[in-house]
């Protein structure tokens, strides 16, 4: 029998109350699961709720409703001791490696923060651990006494990764971890993520707006639009046969290196902008930009259902 998923997200909602009765449904009814050892890519345009989803899963934000099960346990029902253990199992790597590293702290202190909070090592064991982590991410132990501003963007992101690894988590949420980096170093950081996953059996939730990149590193992909999950399947199925018109448009925008194939491809160009999440369209939120919109799309939100084995989508076409 297959292993139970390491993470199950069930009907997760995170609504921000902005005053004056205005409610911004940043994450609305999100359901998906991540298997142990896989990379799950979460994609969608800016503002669709990817970061909010990641932050709610790791409990930087409290959920408005819904469930997050980690190793089968509902994380919203954990007592203080188990919550600390949960925090140990799940860590986050942020987009901007400069903003997320305290400029007044040395790299060694930054990396050891989690070790100190969880009281894992002290003295020589602690400094040995920091040296090891620096080596593991392609830096070296002399870097421990330096400050974040002395490093390049790629090196700072390596520090961010070492910090996340310090307490040996099983699961890492990487929120746009390469988008702030030069193109030339993006591949190096992606390769580091891959190597660490292989060596340590890590599971990743990899958040990014760039489907072209995500599909190369993810086993499975979830596509979000205006706070909702619109499609989930394996990278191969998503590439070969995307079901949701929004996914089709994202894929059709990715250039193909082969000019003959590129010529034959039908480009799906979306009309208009993403609607405001404060005032989303009725029914399916994508209908105002969808080339296949029908009458029923304005009337009801299509259920998120398994259309083919392991291939889920929320669209009235299916
Ligand atoms: N703390 C907050 N308070 C109010 N609204 C918020 C807050 N955080 C995010 N939002 C809003 O929630 C929606 C989703 O934002 P989120 O950052 O999760 O999207 P995203 O897909 O990660 O986009 P990006 O890649 O630009 O960060 C946006 O409309 C955003 O303005």
UniProtKB/TrEMBL annotation:
Q: Which InterPro entries match?
A: AAA+_ATPase, ABC_transp_ATP-bind, ABC_transporter-like_ATP-bd, ABC_transporter-like_CS, Oligopep_ABC_C, P-loop_NTPase
> Alphabetically, which GO biological process terms does the record hold?
peptide transport; transmembrane transport
- Whether ATP-binding counts among this entry's keywords is yes
- For this UniProt record, give its keywords in alphabetical order, as a comma-separated list: ATP-binding, Nucleotide-binding, Transport
PROSITE patterns referenced in this protein's UniProt entry, alphabetically: ABC_TRANSPORTER_1, ABC_TRANSPORTER_2
State one Pfam family annotation: ABC_tran
Which residues belong to any copy of the ABC transporter domain?
A: 7-251
Q: Name one GO molecular function term.
A: ATP hydrolysis activity
CDD domains documented for this protein: ABC_NikE_OppD_transporters
- What is the similarity comment for this entry? Belongs to the ABC transporter superfamily.
Q: What is this protein called?
A: ATP-binding cassette domain-containing protein
Q: Which organism is it from?
A: Paenibacillus psychroresistens
């Amino acid at each position: 029998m297959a292993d139970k998923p390491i993470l199950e997200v069930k009907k997760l909602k995170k609504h921000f109350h902005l005053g004056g009765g205005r409610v911004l449904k940043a994450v609305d009814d999100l359901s998906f699961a991540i298997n142990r050892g896989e990379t799950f890519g979460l994609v969608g345009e800016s503002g669709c709720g990817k970061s909010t989803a990641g932050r709610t899963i790791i409990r930087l934000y409290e959920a408005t409703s819904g469930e997050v099960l980690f190793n089968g346990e509902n994380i919203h029902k954990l007592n203080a001791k188990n919550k600390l253990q949960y925090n140990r199992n799940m860590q986050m790597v942020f987009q901007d490696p400069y903003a997320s590293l305290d400029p007044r702290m040395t790299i060694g202190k930054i990396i050891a923060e989690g070790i100190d909070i969880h009281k894992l090592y002290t003295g020589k064991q602690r400094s040995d651990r920091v040296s090891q982590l620096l080596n593991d991410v392609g830096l070296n132990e002399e870097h421990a006494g330096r400050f974040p501003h002395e490093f390049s963007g790629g090196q700072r992101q390596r520090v961010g990764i070492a910090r996340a690894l310090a307490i040996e988590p099983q699961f890492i949420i990487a929120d746009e971890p390469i988008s702030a980096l030069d193109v030339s170093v993006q591949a190096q950081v992606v390769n580091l993520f891959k190597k660490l996953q292989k060596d340590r059996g890590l599971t990743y939730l990899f958040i990014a707006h760039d489907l072209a990149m995500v599909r190369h590193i993810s086993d499975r992909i979830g596509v979000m639009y205006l706070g909702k999950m619109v499609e989930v399947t394996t990278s191969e199925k998503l590439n070969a046969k995307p079901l949701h018109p929004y996914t089709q448009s994202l894929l059709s925008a990715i250039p193909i290196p082969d000019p003959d194939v590129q010529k034959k491809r039908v480009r799906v160009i979306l009309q208009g902008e993403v609607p405001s999440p404060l005032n989303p369209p009725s029914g399916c939120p994508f209908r105002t930009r969808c080339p296949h919109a029908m009458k029923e799309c304005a009337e009801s939100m299509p259920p998120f259902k398994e259309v083919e084995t392991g291939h889920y989508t929320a669209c009235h076409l299916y």
